[in-house]
Amino acid sequence: MLGCLGNLYDSIENLGDAYIYSKPNINTLLKKTRKVPFWFPNMQALKSNNVYQCSHHQYANCIMCVANDPESTCPVYNCVMNVSLTFVNLGDYVKGVFTYMVFDDLVVTPMSTISAITLLNKFNVKDVGFLEEKAIDMGIGKGVQLLRESMQSKTVLSAVFLGKNMAK
Hints:
The protein is α+β, with helices and mostly antiparallel strands. It contains 5 helices and 4 strands. It has a two-stranded antiparallel sheet with strand order 1-2. It has a two-stranded antiparallel ribbon with strand order 3-4.
């Protein structure tokens, strides 16, 4: 696999039972299936867990809009929205409340005090006063940029959030 998108899949697949509910359940996240886009506008509508997308064959991969009523009309393509989708709730995958560390090459590991100290030593950080927290704005555009970069680069987060085009 080009880039480092595979690292993300491998990391999720390798998280232990302490972090993930079950391996068969995690396969629904890692395997290609239709899922409701993360920007679903009305989370209240998901209480029934029934969501639908465009029915016209040309727009079967439309991820612009979803509805909770199978008789709704897609505002983008003017099609009936009666193709059933599977809503995936991250609460179905991750156990408890944990903090995770995501590296520039999209390797994900559980975060702990020990792992943070080990990482600081690895990068020879002597004075933590030089470290900087960076808040990021995340939207659809950044998501697309992350996906594109993850298929081309090994330094995804630096490229997208710091504007550094490092070795690919």
